[in-house]
Amino acid sequence: MQPVQKRGSKAPTVFTGIVLAEGEAPIFEVGEHIRVLTRSPIGHYRVPQYVRGKRGVVEAIMPIRELDNEQEAFGRNAGSKRHYYRIALPMKELWLQYTGSPRDGLRIEVFETWLERN
Amino acid sequence: MNQSSELLTRLPNDIGGLPGQPVKKVDHVLEPWEKRCHALADVLDFHKIINTEEKRRGVEDLGSEIDSAESYYERWITAFTNILFQKGILTPEEFARKMDEVAARYANPA
Amino acid sequence: MEHSTAVHVHSPSEASSAPLSYYEVMETAIQELLIQKQLIGAGEIRRQIEVLVSRTPALGAKVIARAWVDPEFRSRLLANGRTACEELGITFYDDTKLIVLENTPKVHNLIVCTLCSCYPRPVLGLPPDWYKLPPYRSRAVIEPRAVLAEFGTVIPDDVEIRVSDSTAAIRFLVLPVRPEGTENYSEEQLAALVTRDAMIGVVPATIDTARSRK
């Protein structure tokens, strides 16, 4: 690939043609509407049942990619990393009978492989 | 889904949203062995012998009956023991012999 | 079978003649076996106990007080909780990150770990038992207002409650609203108003806090 120098400025060199590895770029964006998946692992999981299948919004992308903690629990201490997302879920989405304020909400970090676009 | 599969698909620690008692503001000063147990968890993690997530999974593996019967740090030390067996670092025999040795030492202080 | 040399780990129970509990024996046995096998060093647990004992809510209180008086520190704290704590010498001995949750007149934050007991230990020390027991863990995410009321905290309906459930490598610390009437307080005096429970989010920080703090 050729470095592309912007003319007449001290802007940083921009490379074209760089290919990202699987999982390097976040799949979801801040503000995106997502749904937590509904699969049922046994043995270990870190996505509580009460949020599965629920719909919310990506509030933030955790900037540093991390291991899949569900795999880490079985000794997988290294290898591919993906993003965790801080998801905002309204309380009334989580609980049919929620009696607090309609503004109340939950925030929870969810690994990329547990989310899909809503 | 019958009852036993529910025991599998909902881990004993996955209690968010389940009915619960009023919060009693209990706390206790850790006993020395509990402090040592907590420090041991951190040291095991630093050495990548048992990482924090493995510890959590080990506690979950105890199952709901032991989970209810044991206290917080009792669960940890039991989980560590099981995981060390699983990883081939200790055997149940050497563990049991050491338990007897330690118990005898403190039953009959020199 | 290896002959075990007596690896004698110091235990305060040596001073007493009471037999150890089953789990105390277990902890001692595991520790000694690991040291014997040279998987951990003999002084490491003692050293880590010192690390843990040095982490108390006073550290968190200092972070909060600094954020109250220094708007630029506050911005840095909200942008990256861990690095801002490190500025004050509060190191993180583990791989966790910290998100500081800002309470405002419109938003009240509460932290919980429904699955276990995740807690910002490097900056607050060890969590109280109630935080780790089922009632708080199960109810904070479904009826936060009722739980807060049990702590004497009533949040008006027009204030949004945000409950953060820790599940991964992020930990949380609540930045309470600075109490009214503290305009002339020194940073030290402000820190004295910030309790552990206010940094969990079950109570606000108040001027009366210093009298009722644990």
Q: Which helices and strands, and how do they pair?
A:
The complex is a heterotrimer of chains A (118), B (110) and C (214).
Chain A: E1 3-4, E2 14-15, E3 33-36, E4 55-61, H1 69-72, E5 84-90, H2 91-94, E6 105-111, E7 115-117
Antiparallel strand pairs in A: 1-2, 3-4, 3-7, 4-5, 5-6
Chain B: H1 3-9, H2 32-46, H3 52-61, H4 63-69, H5 72-86, H6 92-107
Chain C: H1 22-36, H2 44-53, H3 57-69, H4 71-79, H5 81-87, E1 97-102, E2 107-112, H6 121-124, H7 129-132, H8 134-139, H9 144-150, E3 160-165, E4 170-175, H10 187-191, H11 196-200, H12 209-212
Parallel strand pairs in C: 1-4, 2-3
Helix pairs in contact in C: 3-4, 4-5
The shape of chain B is globular
Main sheet: strands, sense, barrel of chain A: 5 strands, antiparallel
Oligomeric status:
heterotrimer
Q: Helix count of chain B?
A: 6
- How do the helices and strands follow one another from N- to C-terminus of chain A? EEEEHEHEE
Give the proportion of residues in helices of chain A: under 10%
Determine the structural class of chain B based on helices, strands and strand pairing.
Answer: mainly alpha
Q: How many whole angstroms does the radius of gyration of chain B measure?
A: 17 Å
Q: Structural class of the secondary elements of chain A?
A: mainly beta
Order of helices and strands of chain B: HHHHHH
Unreliable residue runs of chain A: none
Report the top-level CATH class of chain B.
Answer: Mainly Alpha
Looking at this protein, list some descriptive labels:
heterotrimer, A: 118 residues, mainly beta, SH3 type barrels, five-stranded antiparallel sheet, two-stranded antiparallel sheet, 7 strands, 7% helix, 27% strand, C: 214 residues, alpha/beta, Nitrile Hydratase, Chain A, 2 domains, two-stranded parallel sheet, two-stranded parallel ribbon, 12 helices, 42% helix, globular, disordered N terminus
Question: What does this 3D model show about the protein?
Answer:
- The complex is a heterotrimer of chains A (118), B (110) and C (214).
- Chain A is mainly beta and 118 residues long.
- Chain A has a single domain (26-117), classed as SH3 type barrels (Roll).
- Chain A has helices at 69-72, 91-94; strands spanning 3-4, 14-15, 33-36, 55-61, 84-90, 105-111, 115-117.
- Chain A has a five-stranded antiparallel beta sheet with strand order 6-5-4-3-7. Chain A has a two-stranded antiparallel sheet with strand order 1-2.
- Chain A is flat.
- Chain B has 110 residues and is mostly helical.
- Chain B has one domain (30-107): Nitrile hydratase, beta subunit (Cyclin A, domain 1).
- Helix content of chain B is 64%, strand content 0%.
- Chain B is built from six helices and no strands.
- The mean pLDDT of chain B is 95.
- Chain C is an alpha/beta fold and 214 residues long.
- Chain C has two domains: 21-52, no CATH class; 56-212, Alpha-Beta Complex (Nitrile Hydratase, Chain A), CATH 3.90.330.
- In chain C, strands 1-4 form a two-stranded parallel sheet. A two-stranded parallel ribbon of chain C has the order 2-3.
- The model of chain C is unreliable at 1-10 (pLDDT under 50).
- Chains in contact: A-B, A-C, B-C.
- At the B-C interface, helix 2, helix 3, helix 5 and helix 6 of B face helix 1, helix 2, helix 7 and helix 8 of C.
